[in-house]
Amino acid sequence: MIYLHIGAGAGDKDPSKNYRDGFSEFVKKKKDKNKKIFVVEANPANINKLRECWKKFKNVKIFNFAISANRKNSAKFYYSTNDAPHFQLFSNKKKHVEHYFPKNTIRSKKLRLININIFLKKYFYKKTIDYFSIDIEGLDYEVMMKINLEKYEIKNISLEYLHLNKIQKKNLIKRLLSFGYSYYGFGLDHNKIDWFFKKKTSVWNNIIVKSLPYIHRIYYKRINRILLS
Question: Could you tell me the domains of the chain?
């Protein structure tokens, strides 16, 4: 099986996250002898921790660049000095960082960018991605809307909904449903801030998921119980 995580942070080696990471916990528990794991992290400060996170696994590729929806080769990424040492809020959008650290010093780094479809073509052409997880601090929507879901086979998608507005949620749900995906509850993040979509049609789930943009996320747990019961 192929597992892909974009926006890996420091994996399960970040003390500010209580050494927890939903993607790595999920993959490490999977009884799969042929795991092929791909993790992408923009922040160079986290690469050594990611190597430590995955050191017991043979088929692991760790990439240090940022995934984007455009064709630019580089861009500035912003972070707060108070978010050290792993800078979980490391974003191409300065306002996204300022929202969570309004009175802190914001710094930036210029990083290499890779377009999402160029990345997928290079590493996953004519391959099936069994589990795809994305958490890229404010850029999730743009990247998800640009992925060529007709060309690349992805069975399961876990994406962060926390920073999406109502219109973005509607557009993203509509797009995923149009490519044969259905909503199946919370995604891989252990904090329950991800949605999980399977390449499997469920008429009932597809009716319910259309309500998610209009309700507060505190009710998602109740809806998920209905869907998965």
Answer: 2-165+186-201 (3.40.50)
